[in-house]
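Thread: quick sanity check before group meeting

JM: Hey all, I'm pulling together slides for Thursday and realized we never actually wrote out the predicted structure for the chain we discussed last week. Dropping the sequence here so it's in one place. If anyone has concerns about the input, flag it before I start.
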Amino acid sequence: MNLAALKGVGGVCCAVVAAGVLALPHYSTDLWPALVLLFIGVGILGMPIVEQLAGLAGGAAGAARRSPSSPHLLEGAVQGLPQAVIVLNDEKVALWNAAAERLFGWTARETVGRPLPFALGGGAVPSDAAEAAGRPRTKAGAPIDVPVVSSLLRDPQGRVTGRMLVFMDPAGPARPEDPNLISVAGSSATDMSTVLEIRNRLQIQTHVASVSRALSRLAPSAEVMKTVGEAALSLGKADRAAVYLRQPDGAVTCPWSRGLSEAYVAQVMRYAKAIADGRIMDWTKPDFLEISGRGIDGSAPLLYSDVAALPHGAVVPKLTQVEGYRALANWPLTREGEILGLVSCYYNAPRKWAEIEQESFRAFCLAAADAIDNGRRYDEQAQRAADLEVFFGLSKRLRVAQNPEAIYPILVGQAMDLLRAEKGMLFLLEPKGAGFKCVYMAGLPPEARGEAFPTSGSAFGRVAETGAPYRTDNLGGEPLPVWLNAYRSIGPAAIVPLRSETEIIGTLALGRDRGPAARPFADPEIRLLEGIADIGGTAVRRAKLFQNLENSYLQMVLSLARTMDARDHYTSGHSERIAVWAEEVARALGCDEAAVQEIRWGALLHDIGKIGVPDEILRKPSQLTEEEWVVMRQHPVIGEEILASTDRMRGVARIVRHHQEKWNGTGYPDKLRGQEIPLGARILAVVDSYSAITDDRPYKKARSHEAAIAELRRCAGAQFDPEVVDAFRRVVHRARAQPGRAQ
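JM (edit): ok, ran it. Output follows.
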């Protein structure tokens, strides 16, 4: 066997063994033995592998010198790669591995030497790595959703010789340290630097693809910030990192940081505000102002290899003194030409950034910017859903409120809880807009409640006049008229108009305690407060209209009751007298104020049903016949029907219906007994009977107080509630003991 044959056999053996080792999925430690075997085999055969297949060094000329056996060696080395890898030279396929065949359906024979059979990003292969984000299609035309990373391949002189496309495995994250992910490529058998560059490139690309998958998931902003920040730390191999965002109003915030002190972040924010306000720089402000005092324009990063070498007047060295870092990379987060913020990576020692690192980090920043924008949209949708839930709950609570006085605490309390405010105020305009009245307040001195003051000379008045909301960081620190001294303790405040369907009827205001940690009201909070005020204003106006209608109805009913008293001169003033007694007995029995008022109204209106009784029966001077009693016994039912049509009077209507019931169940109309009879009706039965005994009637003369009390005590336990009789007796005894009081 001649020397050439021995060389050929030896070279093939070395190359095949090396390719087999590299293809082992579990082989993840030292690559050098396998690489040396591969290089020896390739050197013996005298073939520059990647020069001929991928054009990395020799371009088209190298490919022309390719021997027929060299593709089989390289293909053997990459057969076991789980990722689809495509190498392009002059926009034609130079390498198409087995994973690409499985993923797309085309074979290497169908693709090598031809243009890419599908488009990325809606056109040809992108000219920049960051743009390789399209949806490739299979041979059958089906779209494939897999992350794809594209990067330029250069020769040692820096000339672009091709492009590498890596389609990451959709089944799960790849392992950058796995040797199966490393494309063995070099411009010659001894060009180890190119091999290491490709190895590093694939590791970085795999990491970027893994991060991109994590960022593609829809999530809240806080979660996105954490993912972006942690990915920046890992991808940038940084010691510390922070995410700075520009808010819609131009303010700069830091929603996430790792390894940086609170004092440093606070100082950065102060510098950022000073830059934004124009106090540090005199030239035209760029789209985004970063912490060095320089402007970021476009997607180019600002890289400081050694901040100690910066000019003395720059901001970064001053901040470095606080935190002690030496290198800093500020990577813009851009989306559709808009700069959303920065990812800042901090390093404890000086460093430089290779082109592949910059290229990959820019691709990461584009994905991060999209994720941040999606996170904001997610938050906005979640906030809108929460706002709708708030408005629904508020409307539901307001619907069951019986009157404006019940609406006020619901409205203010809900607003305070939602916006985390310590103080709340509701002001209504007086008739003709002459002034304000504080109808409800919380968190302020009690003397401020019910206080009236002019509309002019205050922010409350300006809001009522203009309809525009008002916001301040320190209400108590502003010049306030003397009648608003009670509000000096308020720091951040928000005042919005309280609107009905047709006009402004007042203002709703919230405040937070004064102090350095007080948080101003943000735009979303102002919008939420306006929505609450709109719902509340409509509810207040409708409740007032309904209350006015009810009051008008009650005045009409009360007038009818007085008319009924006037029909019989013997009973004139009867209802007013027993109303006084009924009210005092109710208090003596421990009734709350609402029940006392219901009982008083019941006493005033207990005979309203007699409007349906003919005069010949009502004013008959002798005893009634059984037929006449049937008519007379209908008056409690008629009285209930008149009153029950008004919500406020439903409790009163029950008292009126049952005031003729008896303790032993022999009364009318329902023959209730004992505790079944409403307490107000039991009280009314006692005081009405006392009045009937002591008043002159057409069919009898008045009897004495002593006789009336004796009759009540005799009938206690049969006709009357004994406890009510005892309470009434004590009330009347005290009243008669007071000189000059009407009996």
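AS: nice. Residues 355-399 form the longest helix (45 residues). Confidence is low (pLDDT under 50) at residues 1-74, 122-134, 172-192, 277-293.
JM: adding both to the slides.
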